[in-house]
Amino acid sequence: MLHCFILKGSFQDSVTLMVLSRDLSALPGVAKASVMMGTPANKDVFRETGLWHDTLDEATPSDVCVIVDCEDAARAAGVLEELKTRLADVAKSRRASGYPVARSWRRARQLVPDANVALVSVAGHYAADVARQALDDGCHVMMFSDNVPVEAEVELKLAARRRGLIVMGPDCGTSVIGGVPLAFANRMPKGPIAVIGASGTGIQEICSQIAARGAGITHAIGLGGRDLSAAVGGISALTAIDFVAADAASRVVVFVSKPPAPEVKARVLAALKLMQRPVVALFLGDRQAARRDGNVHFAQTLDGAAALAVDLANVDSQASHQPSAAGLGICGLYTGGTLAAEAAQLLADALGLHADETHAEGYMLRSGGHRVIDLGDDLYTRGRPHPMIDPTLRNEMIRALADEPTYGVLLLDVVLGYGANADPAGVTARAVAEMRAARGGAPITVIATLTGTDQDPQDRASQAAKLEEAGIVIAESTRTAVELALRLVQPPVAGIGAPPPLLAAPPAIVNIGLRGFADELQAGGTNVVHYLWEPIAGGNQRLQRLVAALQ
Amino acid sequence: MYETINEANEAVLNEIKRARPRLVDVRPAADCIPVLREGRTLLHAGPPSAWADMTGPMQGAVLGAAMFEGWARDAEEAERLAASGEIRFTPCHDHSAVGPMGGITSASMPVLVVLNEVQGNTAFCNLNEGIGKVMRFGAFEGEVQTRLAWMRDVLGPVLSQALGMVPGGIDLSVLMAQAITMGDEFHQRNIAASALLLKLLAPDIAACEASTQHKEEVLRFLGRTDQFFLNVAMAYCKCVMDAGAAIEAGSIVTAMTRNGRDFGIRVSGTGKRWFTAPVNTPAGLFFTGFSQDDANPDIGDSAITETLGIGGAAMIAAPGVTRFVGAGGFSDALETSEEMREIYVDSSPMFQIPTWDFQAACLGLDVRRVVETGITPVINTGIAHRKAGIGQVGAGTVRPPRGCFEKALEAVAETVGVAVD
Q1: Which position has the higher pLDDT, B382 or B242?
Q2: Given an 8 Å threshold on Cβ–Cβ distance, is B373 in contact with A100?
Q3: Is B273 on the interface with A (CB under 8 A)?
């Protein structure tokens, strides 16, 4: 038998009521208990779940509706008392919060005047109105709420765009702005990587993979699962890209989403290509033919994207210690044929050049002012030992760079092991020193890869030390060596302006909806005010319009 | 005249802030309130009410007043007279007056005279009778009559003489600014203000021409009557709110009051029009032997203190009385005052509250904010027994019904020509 109670004018958030429903249903003698606010949608739920009671007709959206399925009326009354006690406990525990609590947007802003982000987690039916109020008052919006109509999403995002603001969401699970985790997020080490994504767990996994590799993030900006659909058109994605592009601290960018609508993807890619810094794009499930398009690298997996981003961040860090080689050429002098081929191919891919197919005179690449030569080619070994054994020829060619100021980067391999020269690093270091001395002031960055192990007779560690002592940069792989070389000859265009306000300082938050988010923000030291939201004018639409008209 | 409601409200608040009421005299009510000179007339609390609609405490006070004025020899005769329609009832609020609980005020009862030296308006309130069996809570026989006579014959004249010796009267803003820092919120707790008033008046009472016995009686009465200043604070608030109401525009609430059946409010933009809805019944703590079942529904003009922004809105100023709010303590008081910030649009230039980190008391209750947030003012109140003749049974808090604010908002919209579907 169904018993119905209505608690007039006592708004509670849906999560609190769901927990209470579960607990009350577990009481002895109770078949089922359901507690919800009296919104039209919730009334439908009562109907659909066989818990309808005609008393519910008189409930308004600001009334707590209680349905208890049990035989005994006295038992039902007991359940109601239990509910009231628990609601009082909820209210009491809230009083202990260390942050201010407001009952209106206006008061929330008074209490935390520098609040600049609204974290919205009210029921989807109300979320758009709440978000609009925040945008109108100049605040960015993170919408955790779902079930927001797509028309409302577009309208809000266009309004945000006009005001230079961003709407993260709706249905946005994760963002980390200036180190402040919003909604579902991880506490991340700081670092040079910005993550933008339409996938909450995708962002969380990439971030934690980045942390596992010893790196960190500037910001993670969530967009909401629908942002890259044709209907929404990636409005927030483009805003996020603009924001990050203006943020000098974000040296590398990861963009993650499910495959966007084709026209949206084109727009997003165009924006990513204008970011003037390395970008890793992961369109999950999209079989990207190219590995790279200019500054945009395509990854296939979450960990792959994180690894690539960390590599690129390391390259960026190395580049920051080297003189600019803007517009100069890259010269690769390799003793190993496969290493030369890999370097040539990677350079050709990145620069849109063609690797040399004929390999005449050992040239693996000879184009665009760049060259990569395989000194193990037959031409160079005719009548003399392989350069891995006798580096004389390569040393001569290194020294010859003294007279070639159009080259700003030199790529080398240093191969250790049985059969190789007893001290390849030492002889190479000497040749580089002589070249530099003869070159005068013209700077050149020398980047070497080391092939070999610590068990090799030459000892990898001491070989590396010799190279570093000579001012030679050691790259972990041909791939990162080539990235660094490219970074030096094509440095990012300076002139990144002041960072956008959202990213300039840790945000202050107006939390609207789930109380737990405010608790967590407070615990993390963030300036937060909780807006204990209820439907305006108790959900009476006529009064809502009247209040609005009389402001 | 004003471009926006906000502009109008600013003008109203400006008048409220400028007002400087002083306690200048204590006079027989008929001297001050012309309507009381017209036959058998009684003032009552709340929006207009007929005898038949009055609840126990107000009816009891009517009987007491009828006997006190000599219109009836006993309660039965007084009741017949009241039921016959020969007594004219009119709200205190229509005559620059206020009265706690039943608010019943008759011609020969003394009233406090509070004069606003800036805008020139006056306000009146009867004198506090102390605790126990008192007329304002509906008691009407025996000691009630004895006390009313003493107040008429001794207390009123002695206070009048003493106040006559204070040049310009007593600056109530200054006194109250001091008392709020001493833990008064001026509705549930007035002990500091009452003591300060006695401190100011004692030398002049001692020096006035009354007999030694009368002076001793008055000093002893003031010394034991902790809530004596409540009626002074009410007259003060009425005086200030009337000064604001003179702007005749905007959405600031200028009166909140209850007659035991209806809660009535007036708003700055709609003049003397009442917006009413059925009152709630206060909840709180009860004297031994009484319970919630004995409580009369909300009654009295004393919500004029919350109209200004003290009383319940300044709960945090008076941690000593927060037990009336609920089981909690200081944090409940803080939460109440913080909540009230949502619906009051401004702050008092006079009343700083130390326990609120020296924030000023609330000012300017805005009908729009009440409707928008659904938050109604918290009113601290005494609780009368629902039957006539028994008196006070407890104290607690109560909220007005939302309905009167919703009706007022509709009316404000009409005055500025705003219509919605």
Answers
A1: B242
A2: no
A3: no
